[in-house]
Amino acid sequence: MSLSYTYPGLVVLDLATNFAGPYAAMILGDMGADVIKVERAPKGDDTRGLPPFVDDQATVFLAVNRNKRSIMLDYKNEEDRATLRQLVESADVVIESFPPGVAEKLELTWSDLSAINPRLLLGSVSAFGDGDIGNKMSGYDALVQAVSGMMSFTGNEGEPTVRLAPSVLDLTTGIWTAMGLMAALARRSAAGGTGEHVKLALIDTAFNMMNHQLMAYLAIGQEPRKLGGGAPSAAPYGVYRAEDGELLIATASEEQFPRLCVALGFPEVKDDPRFKTMIDRIAHRREIDELIKAAVRGRTISDLLETLANARISAGRVNSLAEACALPVTQERQLFEPADGPLPPQLRLPLDDEPNSGLRPPPKLDEHRSEILAELAKR
Length: 379
Known about the structure:
This protein is an alpha/beta fold. The chain is 39% helix and 15% strand. It has helices spanning 20-30, 59-63, 78-90, 102-106, 110-116, 141-147, 168-191, 202-209, 211-220, 256-263, 278-283, 285-296, 301-310, 321-325, 328-333, 369-377, and strands spanning 11-14, 34-40, 53-54, 57-58, 68-73, 93-96, 121-126, 196-201, 237-242, 245-250, 314-317, 336-337, 346-347. The strands form four sheets. The chain has a six-stranded parallel β-sheet with strand order 5-2-1-6-7-8, sandwiched between helices.
């Protein structure tokens, strides 16, 4: 299956910066859309200046901007504003992530854009929405992790609060934005050309990502707590240190616990009334963890993984990113598409089930100005 044939001919203007909006635009670009990245003069997308760099390009920018063409415009220059209006007239989709109040100042609100192109679909990404309260609040992924409560139960008990290292809210909001625009495209097709404003907020994404913790809170008032590598609804479940590294052991059913006890050398524990059911084991999570810590101490991970596999227990080494990239299963999945020159490989979308040789590298700033302006002149 090749995604590049999904939206051929679709024109998308990417006016967004940072992660969420550009990632949504990149998804549509991977699906065959012609994505024009409109970057504000003089520096372009904010992520172009974030280290580290390869071939004078920011790897952060490279991660979410392939399959796009770049033109830099000065929104205060009337000639460039006229060019932007022309681009809006010919676009199917616009994606933006302006901070609160900026779209109004630039006259790039939904009412402004839809007046130029009534068929336009606009995807707007914000941190806290466009309500009377949210539109006064700006923020980034980490800030929304903090405000939403997500960070309150991330990390180890008794230790300082930490954020989830990947930009999970930005990237997931980008996915929701792409999905929302795909649904809007289907509705527009069915309705014969009606425009629509699709609005996404990182705070909404945060609560959706905490859905089972949130359900426990809403149902019985149970707030989640820091469990490190553990799971709130299962025990034993966590990260344990062996002689040559760490491994995660996960049990999520009643049948697995007795097998784990036998495999790790404490068979008498499986009949201990303190650990009879999952609810009991969660209540006595620390006692079980101490038993497992003692059992794995001094043993190699390869030995433990073989033992646990024979007992049909889910377990795996805690790998570094370098180790994970080198795994045979990673190679089997063919996740990386080689790039030309010094640029790093591109990571295919999970929707693709085969390498996409049509992936184009992220653009240099203003790289396609002449090409885009020539196309506009022909219209």
